[in-house]
Design a protein that fits this description.
The protein is an alpha+beta fold. It contains eight helices and five strands; from the N terminus they run H-H-H-H-E-E-E-H-E-E-H-H-H. A hairpin with a 2-residue loop joins strand 1 and strand 2. Helix 1 packs antiparallel against helix 2 and helix 2 crosses helix 6.
């Protein structure tokens, strides 16, 4: 199975979401949060598509790649799951290295927050990415779906209704953990 940036991001967000997504159970098409994120990406940097290239590497799509400066640009709606964003972007840098493109850096941009995060590949990140790819494969190949994580982030997840169908409503104590 080809592991993509989405798989790596979901590994760091929710293993259940990763497992379901890998089985083509996709809920993002109905998600208002996903739709808002796409609009922010498209409209925050409207002229970017004229300057930078969309790049597909080993099944992963990198929205904006500045070939001249060797910079991956990733636009995100918020930094609530920044750890997942960082992992996804480091995975992109790793993929580019696998293709023989060295010295690429990355910039995660949060236009609504007016924040950016600069990243570069290090020996430690390479090891982490290799470990994440292996872990993602293990989660995906598991026979059983991982359990619901009951985190506050669940409420804004596109899989929320799927995961909590028939379950009692999350109470405030559970959502605070």
């Amino acid at each position: 199975m080809t592991i993509t940036g989405t798989h790596i991001a979901y590994l760091h967000t929710c293993k259940r979401k990763l497992w379901l997504f890998a089985r083509y159970i996709r809920m993002e098409h109905d998600s208002e949060t996903v739709h808002q994120g796409k609009l922010i990406g498209e409209h925050s940097y409207a002229r970017r598509s004229e300057k930078y290239t969309e790049l597909e590497v080993a099944g992963s799509k990198i929205d904006f790649y500045d070939v001249g400066n060797k910079v991956v640009h990733e636009v995100k709606k918020s930094n609530k799951v920044e750890r997942a964003h960082i992992a996804q972007v480091l995975f992109y840098l790793w993929l580019l290295e696998q293709e023989g493109i060295d010295g690429v850096t990355a910039r995660i941009e949060y236009p609504k927050l007016k924040e950016t995060r600069e990243l570069e590949m290090t020996a430690e990140s390479r090891q982490n990415v290799t470990s994440w790819v292996s872990e993602a494969r293990n989660v995906i190949q598991a026979e059983n779906c991982p359990p619901v994580i009951n985190k506050p982030i669940c409420r804004s997840c596109s899989y929320f209704e799927f995961c909590y169908a028939g379950e009692p409503e999350m109470d405030s104590e559970e959502s605070a953990s």
